[in-house]
Specification:
mainly beta; 3 helices; globular
Length: 377
């Protein structure tokens, strides 16, 4: 019940990694003076590793692969959302102006489906907070934080701690590269109109170490991860039905982000409302294919027991690069009881070329929303 009340207070919430809330908005919400994201916005570090409470929504999103000695590799995700409610701060410390949500998951092929848990809380009283000066966000004993405040351009490690009924994560996440500004120096459009935009940077090629526990079995792990930090006050573009997002750590040290926003007719036309990609090569050079030069071509679908039909194997053409994505396993569908949506989000392997028999070139995470019906928020 407390979670339901928190959602009612939020007005419009994300469902997963790169979401922008509902197409509908209450009159109170529409009039609230959320801070806008404007063209020409310059990100400032280390300040922008921290929270931006004047904006409507924000998330810190970590996904990756973990390698184990006595079991197959598995995928993981740890995500924290901050939501600014359309409630003005009052004299009472109990005024719910900021809400925090978190979800964590393990994609273990030995289990065969995602293990997932969520949390939600009103920010405050030391029980749930999002710090301003560095990445430090937590809900009770769940946390994602930098180990120190980044200074003079240096990047601090992150730690992620999650304990749930069926799994636990205790991970140290270390940068090996500089952060990657998405869009135009961090101003990332999600549709043809500039107002549908966020501030967005990524940290690819993160080195992971630590331990996980899956259904009582504890194991030491190493791996690689990808972190997205994004904040916005925008809604989905008009006519949007869902999105596909890929964060891919390539084996040669390069990194690719690819994203498309689909409209209601995109499944038949194949033409998205908006698509962007950014590839940082191993030599540090950054390539950005223009609009119309990024194609997502489904190759194989998986039918969910919940009714969704997801393109779990997809070929992506980004400029001159062709990548074939294959899932760790098909049943990586996630149902969020807190946010009321079902979507597919899981670990994928990337192959170089036009078919899945080509050479492996990397591993990442693939997010698919809106394939099981309209998003309900």
């Amino acid at each position: 019940m407390r979670r339901a009340l928190a959602l009612a207070s939020a007005g419009a919430l994300p469902t997963a990694g790169n979401a922008f809330g509902s197409n509908s908005v209450t009159a109170q919400d529409a009039k609230f003076p959320y801070a806008p994201v404007l063209p020409g916005t310059q990100l400032q570090f280390p300040r922008d590793h921290g929270a931006h409470p004047d904006h409507r929504i924000e998330w810190w999103y970590v996904t990756g692969w973990l390698d184990r000695k006595s079991a197959p590799s598995c995928g993981f995700q740890v995500t924290f959302f901050r939501v600014r409610t359309p409630i003005s701060a009052g004299k009472s410390r109990f005024t719910a102006t900021q809400l925090l949500f978190a979800h964590a998951a393990i994609s273990d092929p030995q289990v065969g489906h995602i293990l997932h848990e969520e949390r939600a809380a009103r920010a405050g009283f030391g029980l749930a907070e999002a710090a301003l000066d560095q990445t430090a966000v937590w809900i009770r004993d769940w946390q994602l934080r930098q180990t120190a405040s980044p200074r003079n351009g240096a990047l601090a490690d992150y730690v992620a701690n999650v304990h749930s009924r069926e799994f636990a994560l205790q991970l140290r996440i270390s940068p090996t590269q500089a952060f990657l500004l998405q869009g135009k120096e961090g101003f990332s459009q999600k549709g043809p109109a500039q107002e549908n935009a966020s501030c967005y940077y990524s940290m690819p090629q993160l080195a992971v170490s630590g331990e996980i526990t899956v259904r009582g079995k504890r194991e030491i792990v190493t791996g690689t991860a990808w972190l997205d930090h994004e904040w916005s006050s925008a809604l989905l573009p008009q006519g949007a039905a869902g999105w596909d997002w890929l964060g891919l750590n390539l084996d040669d040290g390069s990194a690719l982000m690819a994203f498309q926003m689909r409209g209601t007719g995109d499944l038949s036309s194949g033409k998205p409302l908006w698509s962007v990609a950014k590839l940082r090569q191993s030599d540090g050079a950054v390539l950005e294919p223009g609009q119309g030069k990024i194609l997502f071509e489904p190759q194989r679908h998986w039918a969910s027991p919940r009714g969704g039909r997801y393109p779990v194997e997809t070929r992506i053409l980004a400029g001159t690069k062709t990548i074939w994505l294959r899932p760790l396993f098909d049943a990586q569908e996630l149902h969020s009881a807190v946010m009321g949506n079902t979507y597919w989000e899981g670990a994928v392997t990337a192959f170089d070329g036009a078919n899945a028999n080509a050479q492996r070139i990397g591993r990442g995470y693939w997010e698919l929303t809106g394939y099981g019906g309209p998003l309900r928020l």
